[in-house]
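can u pls check wat happens w/ coenzyme A
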Amino acid sequence: MRRWLNENLGIPVMLLLRGWALNRLIANLPIAAIRYAYYRIVCGFSVPPTSAIWMGAQFTGGALDQIVIGERCSIAYDSFWVAGAAIRIGNDVVAGHRVEFYTSDHDPDDPAFARRDAPIVIEDHVWIGSRAVILKGVTICRGAVVAAGSVVTQNVAPFTIVGGNPAKVIRMRGATEFTYQINGTPLFS
Ligand SMILES: CC(C)(COP(=O)(O)OP(=O)(O)OC[C@H]1O[C@@H](n2cnc3c(N)ncnc32)[C@H](O)[C@@H]1OP(=O)(O)O)[C@@H](O)C(=O)NCCC(=O)NCCS
């Protein structure tokens, strides 16, 4: 279906579907199944039935089909995904409201303002606090926690809690095994 759309509707229509329609129309539909079908058919990535991306999520970039969401994840309201490269979310990841992922930026020293893309990897059992910003090339390792409002510019070691701008280690997480489980999208979220 996505290949057919690419081949037959041309770039302007695809931009409309992956820009305005995705971010202004689909994003705010209260029926998650419709949003997830659109993500799969038009954008090329899937949200597993055990996981959730709540309403208001906005996406941009040429690598939307390289967004990978693991099992039992919950990404709360108004997440923002700049996918110029892959964004890979592991299993059992929880993200608060308005978390932002930026795989792309520009070289500030380059007269041509060259674009730079690098993937973001979020490993299993990471918790990302609300309004955190995750920058390109960052891996947040298993079980780590990002405090609310942090800007993560470098990799985060397993089971560490980081916070601030730029995010620095606050302390180690007090558990390395977890019993909580997300299961799907709450009604009207
Ligand atoms: C990261 C967090 C879990 C820390 O919890 P905690 O360990 O109980 O934190 P404490 O209040 O004991 O603070 C520990 C230290 O971290 C600092 N800190 C806490 N939150 C911080 C933040 N968001 N940014 C920067 N530093 C932070 C505190 O100032 C304190 O520093 P100090 O030791 O120099 O005084 C919590 O602050 C947080 O950000 N929660 C996320 C909230 C959220 O997004 N909720 C949405 C639900 S998914």
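Residues 94, 96, 129-130, 145, 147-150, 161, 163-164, 170 surround coenzyme A (CB under 6 Å).
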